[in-house]
Design brief:
The complex is a heterodimer of chains A (about 300) and B (about 425).
Chain A: H1 10-44, H2 63-69, H3 72-104, H4 110-117, H5 119-122, H6 125-135, H7 142-150, H8 163-191, H9 195-203, H10 208-236, H11 240-246, H12 255-265, H13 269-293
Helix pairs in contact in A: 1-13, 2-13, 3-8, 3-10, 3-12, 6-11, 8-10, 8-11, 10-13, 12-13
Chain B: H1 2-19, E1 27-32, H2 38-53, E2 56-61, H3 66-78, E3 86-90, H4 94-97, H5 115-120, E4 122-123, E5 126-127, E6 130-136, E7 138-142, H6 143-148, H7 157-173, E8 181-184, H8 191-203, H9 221-233, H10 247-255, E9 259-264, H11 268-272, E10 283-286, E11 302-309, H12 316-326, H13 329-339, H14 352-355, H15 361-369, H16 376-379, H17 383-398, H18 404-418
Parallel strand pairs in B: 1-2, 1-3, 8-9
Antiparallel strand pairs in B: 3-11, 4-5, 6-11, 7-9, 7-10
Helix pairs in contact in B: 8-9, 8-17, 17-18
The chains are: A mainly alpha (about 300), B alpha/beta (about 425).
């Protein structure tokens, strides 16, 4: 039966209704678990509530936001977070690409290799951060020991204490942890590329480098951009890595560490909520930027 | 008739329930630190009480870092949780947690305990915590190294710097000893750095960050000098890694034989003399150095732990009884002998059985009486913020990111803002 002009058939209407019925429980749960706390946080951001006595607070308008905007520690945290996100995502993408291309080739032991590769990603961040903290210890850490014996460095380096090195150490640990995740996502995108494309390119006489840049990269771009989006949003929200490795130190604190310090250490719910709201806005802006710049589209399957 | 029967029944029930105290077994949850041998001693003490009183105890372990433990407590108490009945409370927390703690006045006897600590634990006339053990920052030194190089115990900070440098250089000149450092302390940006920084300032005439009357005194020339001296240690007699050291990391370096001096709390003493310690029998303890001249005074940071009872516990009577037991003479004596935990009951410092394993206790009481407390009383609920600002400022100076004068000037401004203009 042909659809009526400008309307839906009965079956289409029924399917729409069924779709909504299936979605509603999930939407309700999401609103309760994610939406309500988010709205409450934004609400508290306009008050001077403290955890000492959460029942008595007053509205103070944009005062918290003004305090944050004039706090050099906050802008330091923003810079730390952006630096961390950009550097770590870039390194992870490049390394992930290399590893994924390697794993895409038909080598023996590919299956176990893929499984073993996931181990850093599988270990909880807090555990691996603590482990790396001990390894990077300047006096009795194993990294310094190995480097000293190999003669690469002459005196032990303070990887997590030296302000010039600390942020790079955090980036390095994150790269160790998350490159497998990126590699796996990129591998999934690579495996969707049909072999015939490569054969055609070889017949046409394209060099391997040319194949990579002219054929592979454009074909995996959607999957790659999704992986980059995931990682970038994760990196902007980073907390446990910096907190476990360097504590509240302002030279490496991320926005989440700052917000937590205000909220939990200082018991200042208003200020901490304002910092969290600021964080959400920055993450949303970054997400929008990546989606637009990467031309990621969510409504079609593939480009 | 029916109403009378019901009333009688209720009274009978009440009688049975309230008379069943000796039979009813409650589980009291206590959270004590797991640092060093504390966990073992705490468990033994609590289980002794449990046996004697016919109840049960459950130990809840908490993070080592004081800052993190406080955050955990604040979250629990803000939620009015009854998960933990008895809290081990640091010396600077009574002011912050006072609203959530039971008043122990009249229920536990405080005679014989150090008065300064009892006063510290009394907020708005309520005794919110019982003193458990007191501690003060101490200077640990390698007796064998000082003897071998013919140096005396340093009396001032400059003497410490010189002695540490001389010994460090001499030791490093020997083959295979290139890991030796002069002085290790707690330099991570957390509460421990506040104590270290306060010790430097107070011992060299630099004040106590915020004075008793609320005046912010931290920006003064003596404080600038003190921080400049500390900054000069980094890279010379102190490893750069000290910027991330808490108590355990510093102890690790000293205990493995790689430092001449260490600043730490008394808890490290039994660990340094344990069977498996590389420096067993070669360590001495002394009072921390003072500044030069007449403004210099020995100023150890006051520490220690208290026991407090949560206001939200349904087992108040048993919880208070546990506190009474743990802070009693016998228990404090046992802890002093087994773990070098300096008691808060003053006449125990003359007890020979306690002095035998801990000879430095003889001088400790004087050190404790002269110890400098952090400004937690005057700053009240804002203490955490003050401590974090101060620790960050000192950390920025130590790491070379700021000059002492600039950092202290900026710190003064920020403290003015936190204190709403000096009105705490």
């Amino acid at each position: 039966m042909a659809p009526r002009r400008g309307g839906l058939t009965g079956m289409q209407r029924r399917r729409r209704r069924a779709a909504w019925l299936f979605l509603v429980p999930m939407l309700v749960t999401l609103a309760a678990v994610a939406g309500w706390p988010l709205l409450r946080t934004v609400y508290f951001a306009f008050t001077d509530a403290t955890l000492f006595d959460l029942d008595y607070y007053q509205f103070i308008g944009l005062l918290n936001f003004r305090f944050i905007a004039t706090d050099p520690d906050w802008w330091r945290a923003v810079w730390n977070t952006l630096f961390f996100a950009i550097v770590s995502v870039t390194i992870e993408t490049v390394l992930g690409l290399v590893i994924a291309l390697t794993l895409n080739a038909r080598i023996r032991g590919r299956g176990p290799l893929r499984a073993a590769m996931l181990i850093p990603w599988a270990i909880p961040t807090v555990v691996s951060a603590q482990m790396w903290g001990w390894m990077l210890h300047d006096q009795y850490g194993v990294i310094n020991e190995v480097l000293l014996r190999l003669g690469v460095i002459s005196t032990p380096w303070a990887w997590v204490a030296d302000p010039a090195l600390a942020l790079w150490s955090v980036v390095a640990v994150d790269v160790w942890k998350t490159t497998p995740f990126m590699a796996l996502l990129i591998l999934a995108a690579l495996q969707l590329v049909p072999r015939s494309v490569y054969e055609a390119a070889k017949i046409d006489g394209l060099s391997p480098v040319g194949i990579f840049f002219r054929m592979t990269l454009p074909l995996i771009r959607p999957g790659l951009m999704v992986a980059v989006l995931f990682r970038a949003l994760d990196a902007l929200r980073v907390f446990d890595l910096m907190y476990v490795l360097t504590g509240n130190s302002p030279s490496t604190a991320s926005m989440s560490v700052y917000a937590r310090q205000q909220l939990v250490d200082f018991q200042d719910v208003g200020f901490g909520s304002a910092a969290s709201t600021f964080l959400v806005l920055i993450v949303a802006a970054a997400a929008a930027l990546i989606i637009i710049a990467g031309r990621i589209r969510f409504d079609t399957a593939g480009s | 008739m029916a109403a009378a029967a019901r009333a009688l029944g209720t009274v009978a029930m009440l009688a049975i329930v309230t008379s069943g105290n000796a039979v009813a077994q409650v589980t009291v949850a206590i959270s004590c630190s797991a640092l060093g041998v504390e966990a073992k001693l705490c468990r033994e003490g609590a289980e002794d009480w449990a046996r004697l009183s016919g109840n049960r105890v459950r130990l809840v372990s908490t993070p080592n870092s004081g800052t993190e433990r406080l955050a955990l407590y604040q979250q629990l108490l803000a939620a009015h949780s009854d998960d933990i009945d008895v809290f081990q409370v640091d010396v600077v927390w009574p002011g912050i947690l006072a609203n959530h703690l039971l008043d122990l006045h009249g229920q536990v006897d405080t005679t014989g305990h150090l008065e300064e600590v009892v006063r510290n634990n009394t907020v708005d006339g309520r005794l919110v915590a019982m003193p458990w053990f007191v501690s003060a920052g101490l200077l640990y030194y390698r007796r064998d190294l000082l003897e071998a190089h013919g140096r005396t115990l340093p009396e001032t900070w400059r003497q410490l710097t010189d002695t540490a440098e001389v010994i460090m250089r001499a030791e490093r000149a020997k083959a295979g000893e290139d890991r030796m450092w002069g002085y290790v302390f707690q330099g991570r940006a957390y509460e421990g750095l506040t104590v270290n920084g306060l010790e430097w300032l107070a011992s060299q005439g630099g004040g106590r960050i915020v004075e008793q009357d609320g005046r912010i005194s931290v920006n003064n020339p003596y404080a600038v000098q003190a921080l400049a001296l500390a900054r000069s240690w980094i890279g010379k007699i102190t490893p750069l890694g000290v910027l991330n050291y808490a108590e355990e990391e510093a102890r690790g370096v000293f205990q493995s034989g790689n430092a001449v001096f260490m600043r730490n709390w008394p808890y490290a003493w039994p660990l340094l003399n344990a069977e498996d310690s590389p420096v067993r029998g070669r360590v001495g303890v002394a009072v921390l150095p003072r500044g030069e001249g007449e403004d210099g005074a020995h100023a150890a940071g006051l520490g220690g732990e208290q026991l407090a009872v949560s206001r939200y516990t349904p087992r108040a009577e048993q919880a208070v009884d546990l506190v009474r037991y743990l802070t009693s003479r016998e228990e404090q004596k046992r802890r002093a002998i087994a773990g070098a935990f300096s008691p808060s009951i003053t006449d125990l410092y003359e007890d020979e059985e306690i002095l035998a394993p801990n000879p430095f206790f003889r001088d400790l009481l004087e050190i404790l009486r002269g110890a400098v407390a952090r400004p937690s009383g005057v700053t009240g609920v804002r203490y955490n913020r003050v401590s974090a600002e101060f620790a960050n400022a000192v950390h920025s100076v130590l790491s070379g990111q700021a000059e002492p004068g600039d950092a202290l000037a900026r710190l003064e401004q920020r403290l003015e803002r936190v204190s709403r203009g000096g009105r705490w």
